[in-house]
Design a protein that fits this description.
The complex is a heterodimer.
Chain A: E1 5-7, E2 10-14, E3 19-24, E4 29-37, E5 43-50, E6 55-58, E7 61-66, E8 71-76, E9 85-93, E10 103-104, E11 108-113
Parallel strand pairs in A: 2-11
Antiparallel strand pairs in A: 1-3, 3-8, 4-5, 4-9, 6-7, 7-8, 9-10, 9-11
Chain B: E1 4-7, E2 10-13, E3 19-25, E4 31-38, E5 42-51, E6 54-57, E7 64-70, E8 73-78, E9 87-98, E10 101-106, E11 110-114
Parallel strand pairs in B: 2-11
Antiparallel strand pairs in B: 1-3, 3-8, 4-5, 4-9, 5-6, 7-8, 9-10, 9-11
Classes of the chains: A mainly beta, B mainly beta.
Chain lengths: 114, 115
Amino acid sequence: SQQGEEDPQALSIQEGENATMNCSYKTSINNLQWYRQNSGRGLVHLILIRSNEREKHSGRLRVTLDTSKKSSSLLITASRAADTASYFCATGNAGGTSYGKLTFGQGTILTVHP
Amino acid sequence: DAGITQSPRHKVTETGTPVTLRCHQTENHRYMYWYRQDPGHGLRLIHYSYGVKDTDKGEVSDGYSVSRSKTEDFLLTLESATSSQTSVYFCATSTTSGRGAYEQYFGPGTRLTVT
């Protein structure tokens, strides 16, 4: 079963606009991560936020985490055509020995038009 | 890319034949994973390894087996391939970011078609 549910499934915007993607999850987590996947390639890690953090920034990326609502959002500001990709959230569970396992959502397909 | 290669990158095989996919890493990461990616399902964990000769099942392990005889290599075997195993397979490794959090690094994927 999928831990993360992402919304929207697809997002189409113009270059320069902001893109916001949301992720909801079901169980207690240790951390939540966002990954990008360009067409035909493997996933690339973007940013990690721990369960005791509420907001994190990395360049044009801003991630928020609300553990009371079991949700996270990824904001990409001033988007570029090169940001066109699929974006996945992934959760690392709290408690026990996780062996680094993550549970991935189904992803949001972002298209940025020049 | 974090020094993770997968071979082959593409394979077409017939139903009922055995298939082995290889993942090789040069990062000396302890943990390794095999996922499959299918439309509408995202990434699903097949098997994972937490050390040499230490492996365990993931979410969708039926029909698959794995082996890890060296830190750098993680093999995924489809004992008797079926059409439902047509998919893109990704290998990943992970290293700790501290306090129980691990980032994963992915290989380029293997596109497998079972006819």
